[in-house]
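Continuing the series of single-chain predictions for the mutant panel. This is the parent chain; the variants come on the following pages.
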Amino acid sequence: MEANRYYLEDRGQRRGMFVNGEKVESRMLNDATRFTFGLEDSYQLIFRSASGTAEEAIPQLLTRIDHMTSSESTGGCLRS
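Parent structure:
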């Protein structure tokens, strides 16, 4: 997050990061931005801005995602 805007940044994904179908290194997120991680059958995530929510909601989610990606492989499945 920078200047009250959220950004998505590729930090070394093996096959790259795609935002709305375009391969990018970094991109500002707008409501309904769709992003994937370089595989045809990859999960597609959609960024939704939510006015009136706690400022901690997005950082908490990003921390959870970082924890999932830094732990042992789960065989390609998301887990909570």
